[in-house]
Every structure is written in C-alpha cells, then in structure tokens.
Amino acid sequence: MLGTILYGARDVRCEEVPEPKIVRPTDAIVRLSATCICGSDLWPFRGLNDVTSPMAMGHEYCGVVEEVGSAVTTVRPGQFVVGSFCISDNTCPHCRFGFQSSCQQREFMTGAQAPLARVPLADGTLVATEELPPDDLIPSLLATSDVLGTGWYAADAARVRPGSTVAVVGDGAVGLMGVLAANQMGAGRIIAMSRHKTRQDLALEFGASDIVSERGDAGVDRIKKLTGGIGADSVLECVGTQEAMSQAIEAARPGAMIGYVGVPHGVEFDGQKLFFSQRGLLGGPAPVRRFLPHLMDLVLERKIEPGKVFDLTLPLTDVAEGYRAMDERRAIKTLLRV
C-alpha cells in the first residue's frame, strides 16, 4: 500500500510501505475513511525536530475496523471508529483520572497517513459509532481524533466557564478549534488573535466575538483595552513558540488559567515573574480519549461542524503538496483522501 514517509527537512514522500499486521492481541487494524496532516507534523517537516531515520507519518484517523487481535472486546470488524492520537489502555490510574495522554502504557500513534493503520490498545483507544456515519460527517469525525480534542482540552485546561472572557493565541487548526470549544462551553466573549482573513472569518463563524490582528506587546495591549485593562479570564495558547506563550501569559488576568497545547519549542519561563503574576498553567498532550465520546456525539447530532477547518483536500499521492500548503500558510489543514 501507499504511505507517507518523512526522510528529513522538507523531504516527505508517498511511497510503497508494508500493510500493517496484528502484532499484539490488543491491536486492531483500521481501514481509514480519511486522514490528514497535523500542524505538529510541520515541526519535523521544517527541520525543527530531528529526523534520525525515515518516519511513518500520520496520527489522526477514523475508519472501519478490518481486523482485531484475540484480546480485543469492545470493537469488532465492520464498526466505524475514531481513535485518539495518544494510545491508552483507558484503565490505568492516570486514565481513570482523565489523563489518558499520560497512560502508563502510552504510545503515540504513527503511520496513519495511509489506507490502513494498526492501532495498539484498541479497547482503550477506539470509540465506535452505532452505525456507519454518512460521508459528509467524515471530516468532522476525523477532526475529533486530535485537532478538536486538543482545542477542547485547551479550553478545559483554561477553565472556560459560561459568561467568561477567553483569549485564543494562534489561528491554526487547533486555535480555531479552541474558539469552537470555548463557544460550546458558553464563553461570553472570545477574542481570537489572527492576521489572516480566511482564518479570521472561520474564527468568527466558530464563535469569536473579537479579532485581534496585532502580535507581541501590541497584541497584549489590544486585549487589555478590549477588557477594560483587566485581561482575559482564560487564555488558550495553541502555537508553542516563546512569543505565543509570552502573549498568553501577559494577556491573562491575575487568577486566570492558561491552557497550553502548542508543542513548546524554545519556550522558557521566568519563575519569579510567573509567581507574582498569579496566573496558572496547565497543558501538554491532550487527553482526547476523555472527550472523544462527547465530541463524536456533537458531530453526529450535527451540533458542530469542526470539519470546516479542512480547507484543502488532496489524494494521498499528493501529500507532499499538502505539507507545503500548510507550511506556506496557503491551507489551514489538509485532508487526505485514501
């Protein structure tokens, strides 16, 4: 079959790879209905993460179960499933505490930019629908696998409450999903930081009330002016750079929480400054499995349409163009048809 392999900076190829097989009795093989490129895939693509050997790419997935290992009991062949990018047993102490992304058996999904994928710990990782969903819901169900779940976690970690004022740093797919999540959680005001018209428009569609195009100190000043000099009650940091984290911390009011889900690259904190600012931080890999049943229900009931974040659809064979389009910000997020 064809699959996506990253060989090094800006060297991603669609080429023949072996079909996945059941390796452990807890595995499942899923035939993907669609897959996609994640913003976090751009870190190694840009050479900002070391690539020491060819990497099988892709960790967002949904599709129909084709085969299961002998120990799998909760999903069966023929069922449509969505799984988290973090593999978990969903039974360990950390999973039961709601942090499946810190499961004691945690693995990170790989190799999902392909027609077939092996999912370890299938019982704990996969969530099945009652029946096969209509084709038009596939993009939105795919979004629940990572990008929506990650944006949702950012809002949850930032303790978004009904009526609260929320600032979202980052207008990529995760930031836009953070806007959608904050809106679903009842935020009274959502300030989205974006300088790109198409992303601004989608942020407004997802529920943003204000757009701030400035960055750095100017962006923080603008948020302070919009909030009467107070700052936001909750801030979602969805980028992972020093500038974005600094904006998030400075835009938060004392007592606020910052949910940070952008994978940090070069981010450092001034402990004493953070101490006296009285702002809290919670982040890390999103425990998508905690939210997955609820998010899938919202999609299946057509209450949300996170699939709108996919603004470029390509066949798997054109995956390299999908990476380039996202890297050059010509696309928010690329959906790959397999």
Layout of secondary structure:
Layout: E1 2-8, E2 11-16, E3 28-36, H1 42-45, E4 55-56, E5 61-68, E6 80-83, E7 86-87, H2 93-96, E8 107-108, E9 116-119, H3 122-125, E10 126-128, H4 138-144, H5 147-157, E11 165-169, H6 173-184, E12 189-193, H7 197-206, E13 210-212, H8 216-226, E14 232-237, H9 242-251, E15 252-260, H10 271-277, E16 280-283, H11 288-300, E17 312-315, H12 319-327, E18 334-337
Helix pairs in contact: 5-6, 5-11, 6-7, 8-9
Question: How would you describe this protein?
Answer:
By secondary structure, the protein is of the alpha/beta class. The chain is 30% helix and 26% strand. It contains 12 helices and 18 strands. The protein has helices at 42-45, 93-96, 122-125, 138-144, 147-157, 173-184, 197-206, 216-226, 242-251, 271-277, 288-300, 319-327; strands spanning 2-8, 11-16, 28-36, 55-56, 61-68, 80-83, 86-87, 107-108, 116-119, 126-128, 165-169, 189-193, 210-212, 232-237, 252-260, 280-283, 312-315, 334-337. Strands 3, 5, 6, 9, 10, 17 and 18 form a 7-stranded mixed sheet that branches. It has a 6-stranded parallel sheet with strand order 13-12-11-14-15-16, with helices on both faces. Helix 5 crosses helix 6 (173-184), helix 5 (147-157) packs across helix 11 and helix 6 (173-184) runs parallel beside helix 7.
TL;DR of this structure?
With 338 residues, the chain is α/β, with parallel strands linked by helices. The chain has helices at residues 42-45, 93-96, 122-125, 138-144, 147-157, 173-184, 197-206, 216-226, 242-251, 271-277, 288-300, 319-327, and strands spanning 2-8, 11-16, 28-36, 55-56, 61-68, 80-83, 86-87, 107-108, 116-119, 126-128, 165-169, 189-193, 210-212, 232-237, 252-260, 280-283, 312-315, 334-337.
